[in-house]
Specification:
Blueprint: E1 31-35, E2 38-41, H1 42-53, H2 62-89, H3 95-106, H4 111-120, H5 125-145, H6 154-163, E3 169-170, E4 174-182, H7 200-215, H8 220-227, E5 239-244, H9 245-250, H10 253-260, E6 271-274, E7 281-293, E8 296-297, H11 303-332, E9 335-337, H12 338-347
Helix pairs in contact: 1-2, 2-5, 3-5, 6-11
Length: 351
């Protein structure tokens, strides 16, 4: 379910937060945060901020810009905490692993094309290698500390099937969809108020930022949990469940046409959702086709049913365990967030 379009593999690690190398700078006056004595520099924060806002008609300003910077810095802090954990566990990615991954990413491109993509993102080859190292290292830590501890038994699968048997009786083709939805209107039900779009311009910037991160290889479900403004689906990674083909035909034409062109695992371009009565923009969405199922009853003996249930249960448990794991590591770390302190001081909230 974690699909990356091949032509975008080169971007897979670019927007990921700084890991190794955060302490390679000299001096200390330009740190945005310090994690267990390791500095995260404003120059690095600026780089990732610019990367995530690339393609927007206008850069975020005011509170929207500050909220985005805080969100990016929070991710950089989390990843720095994981890098420190990797050091303790002896799980840092090796040079050979980094080179192997680099060659895999470069394979579809000529050297000139590869260099052009680095230049477009305003990063060097060393930057790119550093992000690959961080990505591989974090994956190792999560696999060892979280993923390897998840078990889904045959009994779990049978119970889920028996409790949800109707879901597998398909009277017509079904589309298993997920979405990331951003609205231009304030909504008190939205969990992540710090990143909530307040108007259409904000919404356009935010959905473009999400698209940039998807194109860079970020996980769709995680982005939906962090940024989607649909309170009904954001908590479970944007999962909309199965949509009958007849219902899809009745949805807005832009969504229907976009989904019809997708293969399983792919996500759509940004879709503008318009109220058909007054032609007003009501939001922007990105839709992912997780799977398409033909009509008919699916039995538990069907390997596709077992795998779908197993994958769904694993994904749910992994997301919960990852969130809990990050919280525990944050509690154990010593973090100084200078950007957050400065924002509060400038507002007069602190003395």
């Amino acid at each position: 379910m974690k699909h990356k379009i091949p032509c975008l593999l080169i971007l897979a690690c670019i927007t990921l937060a700084i890991g190794l190398g955060c302490n390679s700078h000299e001096g200390g006056g330009d740190a945005a945060a310090i994690v267990d004595g390791r500095k995260i520099y404003n120059t690095d924060l600026d780089k990732y901020y610019e990367n995530q806002t690339t393609g927007s008609d206008q850069h975020p300003t005011g509170e929207q810009a500050l909220a985005l910077r805080l969100n990016i810095l929070r991710e950089m802090i989390d990843n720095e905490i994981l890098m420190r954990r990797a050091e303790k566990l002896g799980l840092l990615a090796t040079n050979d692993e980094v080179e192997s991954k680099l060659n895999e990413i470069k394979a579809p491109f000529t050297q000139e094309q590869f260099n052009d993509r680095l230049a477009d993102k305003k990063i060097t080859l060393d930057d790119f290698k550093r992000d690959i190292r961080r990505s591989l290292t974090v994956e190792k830590v999560i696999n060892k500390e979280v993923t390897s501890k998840i078990t889904v038994s045959d009994q779990d699968i049978s119970k889920y099937y028996n409790d949800h048997k109707a879901e597998f009786n398909l009277v017509e083709p079904q589309y298993h969809l997920a979405q990331i939805f951003v609205t231009p209107e304030p909504n008190p039900q939205v969990r992540n108020q710090s990143g909530k779009a307040q108007n259409e311009a904000d919404a356009r910037k935010k959905i473009q930022m999400v698209m940039n991160r998807l194109d860079s290889g970020d996980d769709f479900a995680t982005l939906a949990m962090n940024y989607s403004e649909d309170p009904e689906t954001s908590g479970n990674g944007g999962d909309l469940g199965f949509t009958p083909e007849s219902s899809l035909q009745r949805t807005d034409p832009a969504t229907r046409d976009a989904v019809s062109k997708l293969k399983s695992g792919q996500y759509s371009p940004i879709i503008t959702v318009v109220n058909p009565l007054n032609k007003q923009v009501v939001g922007f969405r990105i839709v992912k086709l997780i799977a398409k199922e033909p009509a008919g009853q699916r039995e538990l003996s069907d390997p596709r049913v077992q795998e779908a249930i197993r994958s769904q249960l694993r994904d749910r448990r992994e997301q919960v365990l990852k969130n809990a794991y990050y919280e525990v590591l944050r509690d154990q770390a010593k973090v100084e967030n200078f950007l957050a302190e400065k924002i509060l001081a400038d507002s007069g909230t602190t003395k």
